[in-house]
Amino acid sequence: MDTKRPSDADALAAVLRAGGRNAGLPVMFGGLVGERASALLTGFVGTRSRILQNLVIDSSRGLGGRAIAEGRVGAVADYANSSEITHEYDREVAGEGIESLLAVPAVVRGRTRAVIYGGLRRVELIGDLAINRIATSAARLAGEIEIRDEVDRRVALIAESAAAQSLPVPAGVSEAIISSYVELADIARSTADPALAERLHGVEKVLRGAGTAHDCDGPHLSPREYEVLSHVALGCGNGEIADRLGLRPETVKSYLRTIMTKLEVRNRREAVVAARRHGLLV
């Protein structure tokens, strides 16, 4: 399975395109924030020159730097003459003809991971509607980055599990792997990023077999049957499973009947035990 992380810069570029249209701002640009709390500007919509490209924004400088450091929105209506910010980037902003500027951070778990700018080529207060729409775009980007962080964490757990496949899987590890699969399946259904969804499905397949040796001659479960049984293994009731998977309780019962028939068992507990025996669950 290819576990390479989808490009966060591509996600940023998509958010810039959509955000500019929604907010009515002619100039949009932004960058991802690295470990040293500085942003490298790599995404641009509506710019007329290359003067902003690959500019590094320090967290102690300029409007964007303040947004990075404080994790909150900043806006100035007359950038060149504003007394509210430092002016290290005046040459670059003026070179693009921007006179009013907005900077919005994308914050993940208390840390700024990207900064999004919106600009006007005239002195004018950027309205609340535009600010709110760019803030919504930044929150969407933060959500995508957080999902990707979680996928990376889960992939690392899978790698650790795979390294120890020859050892018996402790009950706590078994539950953690099943829980990871269930959570990733939920994330896959919620993300609008096709590349990320594809990667999540690949991770799901690995999770299904982590720590197990599947009996090729034994029963086989469909992906949905596996999802239902995974929730059963976590102790979920039919109503909770229905809510989590967006199914009707009667549909969950139908899946369980099919699962028990395939596994030749009489109840839920026996189904989980049999699934583990056949290598369908850890």
Automatic annotation (TrEMBL):
Checking Gene3D superfamilies in the record gives:
3.30.450.40, Winged helix-like DNA-binding domain superfamily/Winged helix DNA-binding domain
**Key words of the record:** DNA-binding, Transcription, Transcription regulation
User: In what residue span(s) does the HTH luxR-type domain sit?
Assistant: 214-279
UniProt cross-references to CDD domains, sorted A to Z: LuxR_C_like
Cross-referenced Pfam families: GerE
In Swiss-Prot or TrEMBL terms, this protein is called LuxR C-terminal-related transcriptional regulator
